[in-house]
């Protein structure tokens, strides 16, 4: 008698998101998910700069959100949801998922990136103004790990950029890391998914290593965004699947990729 095949397992290096289009797509495809959050977030050590920016919100022309976590940190402070009632303020979201998080709050994003990263959506912002940036005031609430050089690039175009830290990202060892290691060594992890560069660094540390070379050949490595893919390559784990559009499209691409491996999708 042939053994009954087990559903494929996909490891996701972050806690469940709300909403969770990636998890829903995996579940619909019959894929089991093991969550191994390798980072955690904490409030900014000093929340006053963000509070000051909120107090001056009417003076900004743009606000840029480069992650769903930034939206959450902002709304935790702006409990009155002023963004929904300032028609002059243009809003940019790094990708469809972040835009969706805003839409749930009644906030419409005027510019929505494809998920390639903060720099790409900033370029779309510039293009939407006809490159007329001098004097444009931009608010960019960000993680403490975000590349602040983006603010310098926008400033070089004449914009005035305020980029207060909205939250901190800390590396984290998940409680089930040993289970992941066991499944990985048994080649039972069909794919390991990374949504941010920090998640890659966090998994390396959780595995007690300075790189992710142990993943090569044992699991499909999947990255959301080019910056995440670059971080993985530097850690010795080049991504086979790279998503640069919506999370739903990324999930569909990963499922197609796994379907090419008869050992995985049976």
Describe this structure in words.
There is one protein chain. The chain is of the alpha/beta class and 266 residues long. The protein folds into 2 domains: 9-38 and 172-259, Rossmann fold (3-Layer(aba) Sandwich), CATH 3.40.50; 43-168, Rossmann fold, CATH 3.40.50.10090. Helix content is 36%, strand content 20%. The chain is built from 10 helices and 13 strands. The protein has helices at 21-28, 48-55, 68-77, 96-104, 118-128, 149-156, 177-185, 197-206, 226-234, 247-259, and strands spanning 9-12, 32-35, 39-43, 62-65, 90-93, 111-112, 137-139, 142-143, 160-162, 165-171, 189-194, 220-224, 241-243. The strands form 3 sheets. A 5-stranded parallel sheet has the order 2-1-11-12-13, sandwiched between helices. It has a 5-stranded parallel sheet with strand order 6-5-4-7-9. A 3-stranded mixed sheet has the order 3-10-8. α3 links the parallel β4 (62-65) and β5. α8 (197-206) runs parallel beside α9. The longest helix is centred in the C-terminal third of the chain and has 13 residues, at 247-259. The model is unreliable at 1-5 (pLDDT under 50).
Strand content: 15-25%
Discrete helix count? 10
Spatial order of the strands in the main sheet? 2-1-11-12-13
Q: Characterize the biggest β-sheet.
A: 5 strands, parallel
Element pattern in H and E: EHEEHEHEHEHEEHEEHEHEHEH
Mind telling me the C-alpha Rg? 20 Å
Helix/strand/pairing class, anyone?
A: alpha/beta
Give me the CATH architecture of the largest domain, please. Answer: 3-Layer(aba) Sandwich
Helix content: 25-40%
CATH class of the largest domain: Alpha Beta
Number of self-contained structural domains: 2
Mean pLDDT: 88
The end-to-end span amounts to 16 Å
Shape: elongated
State the total count of DSSP E strands. Answer: 13
Return residue spans where pLDDT drops below 50 for at least 5 consecutive residues.
Answer: 1-5
Topology-level CATH name of the largest domain: Rossmann fold
């Amino acid at each position: 008698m042939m053994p009954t095949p087990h559903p494929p397992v996909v490891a996701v290096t972050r806690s469940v998101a709300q909403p969770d289009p990636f998890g829903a797509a995996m579940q619909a495809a019959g894929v089991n998910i093991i969550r191994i959050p390798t980072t955690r977030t904490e409030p900014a050590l000093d929340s006053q700069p963000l509070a000051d920016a909120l107090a001056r919100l009417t003076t900004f022309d743009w606000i840029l959100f480069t992650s769903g976590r930034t939206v959450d940190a902002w709304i935790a402070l702006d409990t009155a949801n002023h963004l929904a009632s300032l028609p002059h303020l243009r809003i940019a979201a790094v990708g469809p998922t972040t835009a969706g998080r805003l839409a749930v709050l009644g906030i419409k994003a005027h510019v929505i990136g494809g998920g390639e990263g903060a720099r790409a959506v900033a370029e779309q912002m510039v293009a939407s103004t006809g490159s007329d940036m001098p004097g444009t005031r931009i608010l960019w609430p960000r993680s403490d790990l975000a590349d602040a050089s983006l603010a310098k690039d926008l400033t070089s175009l004449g914009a005035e950029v305020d980029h207060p830290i909205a939250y901190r990202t800390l590396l984290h060892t998940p409680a089930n890391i040993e289970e992941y290691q066991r499944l990985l060594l048994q080649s039972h992890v069909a794919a390991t998914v990374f949504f941010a560069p920090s998640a890659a660094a966090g998994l390396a540390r959780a595995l007690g290593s300075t790189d992710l070379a142990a993943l090569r050949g044992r699991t499909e490595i999947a990255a959301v965004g080019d910056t995440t893919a670059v971080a993985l390559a530097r850690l010795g784990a080049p991504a086979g699947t790279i998503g640069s559009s919506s999370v739903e499209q990324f999930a569909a691409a990963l499922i197609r990729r796994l379907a090419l491996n008869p050992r995985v999708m049976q």
